[in-house]
Amino acid sequence: MDDIVRTAENDSPPGRTGHIAAVHEKCMYVWGGYRENPGVLTNTYFGGCELWMYNGFSEKWLLISCVNSDFPPGMSGSAAVMIDEYLYLFGGYGYNGEGCTNRLYRLNLETYDWEHLNPTGLAPSPVDKMVGWQYKGKLYTFGGFGNPDSAAAYDFQFVFYHLLWRGWTNQFFEYDPQKNQWNRPVCTGNFPSARAAHAAAVMNGKVYIFGGRHDRFRLNDMHCLDMESMKWSGPLPIEGPIPEGRSWHSLTALTERYLILYGGFSQNNVALSDCWRFDTTNHVWTMIELPFRKPRVWHSACLNNYNEVLIYGGCTSNILDLERTPEQASDIIVIGITPKSLFRLCVNAVLPMTLLHKHFCILPISIQKVLRARFALYVSSNLDGS
């Protein structure tokens, strides 16, 4: 633990876009992304050495500075997945002059050590704004926006962007941590078209991919890949209303059969704040009315241990507007799908009076710790949940 400096912070991390977030045990980890600095003439980028941890019960942040030399450079648009106690980070756009990358890193969430991996096999093309997921201990990545000059000799679709020597791909790769090897899975069915800034979620052995940008169009099609048969569905037939086309949105799988879609960037360059639920059994979209309007573009979303969708960061306005500095959110949106447990409700109810009450000291030690953590007297990542 000598190479780790931990600092408790009362404030949230600075706002950002294109970062990664993943849940491990009872905490959400946030790393990387792009950060605007309106106080200077040039933009600043969030370096790869900072790691933020959010405890969903105490509702407090912890800053973890990993100072070993093998951490990734600052990047946005990377794909990240959790496999056991490791956070795997693939690709992204690096702000050290290299542009898109296909590097693969691994972070040990027990020791907070980064490791730059060098897998065998033909690697994916360097891209950013792809999606990634894990299934049965393997990492999978699909799509992205990158440079064809460095592409592997595969027959994936590649669509050029008319303003840049870059474009959209529908490349699909598998990484096996046990063999430290990249592979191209053998698939059947109809692949989704090339796209970037799309979103994916895993539910009951199937991966659902929604939307993203393809050339000039932001899509609203839903595709499904059966991870056992490795068969693509093609665009799923949908009954009823469908969310408008978008990119830079999030898609989160709940513990039941539903997926939650939030925000994104519309075809008309509008930052969206709508929330939809997708029924993976009946293939039906249902809009969810929320008591707030908080537009988010290129944010992150995770499901915590309490079946809540945590949405962090992202841009709150037109991310492509060159006449104003985009505002980047630093707050967390919590979408509660199920009611809070009685224990959590009781803790919230007694918080205003408990610490000052003369009988506080006779409460069980575990309850005292929870209440103190909520008051930010200290931060613990080992609090009992509910």
Description of the molecule:
The relative contact order is 0.13. The longest helix has 13 residues, at 342-354. The model is unreliable at 1-10, 38-48 and 376-386 (pLDDT under 50). The radius of gyration is 21 Å and the shape is globular. A hairpin with a 2-residue loop joins strand 9 and strand 10 (86-94). With 386 residues, the protein is mainly β. It has helices at residues 342-354, 365-374; strands at residues 4-9, 20-24, 27-31, 34-35, 44-45, 50-55, 60-66, 75-76, 79-83, 86-94, 99-108, 113-117, 127-128, 131-135, 138-146, 158-160, 167-176, 181-183, 188-190, 199-203, 206-214, 217-226, 231-233, 246-247, 250-253, 258-266, 271-279, 284-288, 300-303, 308-312, 332-336. It is built from 2 helices and 31 strands. It starts with a strand and ends in a 12-residue tail after the last helix. The chain is 6% helix and 44% strand. Strands 13, 14, 15, 16, 17 and 18 form a 6-stranded antiparallel beta sheet that branches. The protein has a 5-stranded antiparallel beta sheet with strand order 1-7-6-3-2, with no helix packed on it. Strands 8, 9, 10, 11 and 12 form a 5-stranded antiparallel beta sheet that branches.
